[in-house]
Amino acid sequence: MYNHGEAAGLLSSLAAAVTPGSKQRLREEPVKASWRDATTELIAQYEKAIEANLPHRMELATIGAVVTNLMRVALVGLLIWWALRIEGRVAMATAIALLRQFSEDPTSISR
Q1: CA distance 24 to 67
Q2: Is residue 48 located within the same domain as residue 10?
C-alpha cells in the first residue's frame, strides 16, 4: 500500500503492481473511476453523515420547541397581566364608586 511521501512505499507498490497476480486481480476487480461511482459513493457518505447527525438535530429541535413554547407562554402571560391590570383599575374604580354611593345612601343598592 502506498502512503504519500514515502519513497520506499512507492517502490514496493510499483513492484507489486507489475506482478502477474496484480494483473489478474485488476481483470477480476477493475478500478471504478467514473463520475457515477464517485457520486454514488459521495451520496452514501452524505447519508451516513446525516444519519449520524440525526440524534443531535432531534435534540436541537426539541430544545427549540421548548424555548418557543416558553416564549409563547411568557408573551400570553404578559398580555393577560397587562389586560387584567387595566381591567383591575376599572373594576377597582367601579367598586370604590359603589362603596362611596352605598356609604352615602345605604338604601340605594336595594332600589
Answers
A1: 63
A2: no
